[in-house]
Specification:
One of its GO terms (biological process) is transmembrane transport. It is a multi-pass membrane protein. This is Nitrate ABC transporter, permease component. Keywords: Cell membrane, Membrane, Transmembrane, Transmembrane helix, Transport. By secondary structure, the chain is an all-alpha fold. The chain folds into 2 domains: about 55-95, no CATH class; about 95-200 and about 230-305, MetI-like fold (Orthogonal Bundle). Helix content is about 75%, strand content about 0%. The chain has 10 helices and 2 strands, in the order αββααααααααα. The longest helix is centred in the N-terminal third of the chain and has 39 residues, at about 45-80. The mean pLDDT is about 85.
Length: about 300
């Protein structure tokens, strides 16, 4: 059994000191900035608005429970009066809360990132293995890679509006628009890094594959993929970071009810609380981005064959 060891004090103290200094600088700078909506919010005002948003979420959940409880009582009464009465359950359609918007953003970015990865990894493997495929596809990648999400957004919006027509749509158009923009902007680092990982397969490993007469599929599974994983995950981490950044802009313009739309709505609102609420969203976006990166790092440690490698 491996004994449990506490992390060294220095490894805990250094981030704590850095965070304290950051908060102090933030508070000091914020107190010197006057805007048309009042003082720029510091950490204290931001925390107060965060607690307000949590209270709004709790109040909304109470309203939702009351709505369903009243509906249940009304339906039971109707059944007592007439056992054959037609019962209709109505869905609660309250205002989405801050936590609902976070959830919406996470679902959108996960969808776009997964869809992009499903395309990027096979393409990266293909152009890494085949020089002909690399010559054919690489110029397209280099042209499409630097395109801004703001340029993709009008095209994606128009295409989805033209193609996706349904009387009872499974997904709303704002979600699809944001998801495809995220996908288009985030898949390039995974393609490039996966191809670079395939190029890192040494000649010795290739000779081993030839000597053992491995089939192409076995060669891919036993030789290429294990050598490619570190580089592939580097690409996936970069792609996920880009996906999260792009999402906010996409949600702002596509009016997808996530964190991006929350920031835009608060900007348009222009109340005395808006700046602090936007700062809550900014901090939330940063923390979630950090947690997503740590999640990918854990996944890389789990699938990596070299457990002794230092991953950061």
């Amino acid at each position: 059994m491996v004994p449990f060891r506490l992390p060294p004090l220095r490894s805990l103290l250094a981030p704590l000191i850095g965070l304290t200094l950051f908060l102090a600088v933030w508070q000091g700078v914020a107190s010197q900035i006057d805007t048309s909506l009042g003082k720029f919010p510091g950490p204290i005002e931001t925390w107060q608005q965060f607690t307000n948003l949590i209270e709004e979420y709790q109040q909304e959940k109470v309203r939702e429970q009351k709505f369903y409880e009243q509906q249940r009582i009304r339906n039971e009464k109707k059944l007592q009066e007439n056992p054959n009465a037609k019962i209709v359950w109505r869905e609660y359609r309250g205002m989405p809360t801050y936590l609902d918007k976070i959830q919406r953003s996470l679902i959108t970015v996960a969808s776009g990132f997964l869809l992009g990865s499903l395309i990027a990894i096979p393409v990266g493997l293909l152009i890494g293995i085949s020089k002909t495929a690399y010559s054919a596809i690489n110029p397209i990648i280099q042209v499409l890679k630097p395109i801004s999400p703001l340029a993709w957004l009008p095209l994606v919006t128009i295409v989805i509006s033209a193609v996706y027509e349904s009387e009872s749509p499974l997904f709303d158009k704002a979600y699809l628009t944001s998801m495809f923009v995220v996908m288009l902007c985030s898949l390039w680092p995974t393609i490039i890094n996966t191809a670079a990982g395939v190029g890192s397969v040494t000649r010795d490993m290739q000779n081993v594959s030839r000597v053992l007469r491995l089939s192409p599929l076995t060669h891919l599974r036993k030789i290429v993929l294990p050598c490619t994983i570190p580089s592939m995950f580097t690409g996936l981490r970069i792609s996920l970071g880009i996906a999260w950044m792009v999402l906010i802009a996409a949600e702002m313009l596509a009016q997808n009810p996530g964190l991006g739309k929350f920031v835009w709505d608060e900007f348009q609102n222009g109340s005395s609380q808006s700046l602090a609420r936007i700062m809550v969203a900014v901090v939330t976006i940063g923390i979630i981005g950090f947690l997503l990166d740590r999640l990918m790092l854990l996944a890389q440690r789990w699938v990596s064959w070299d457990k002794t490698a230092t991953l950061r």
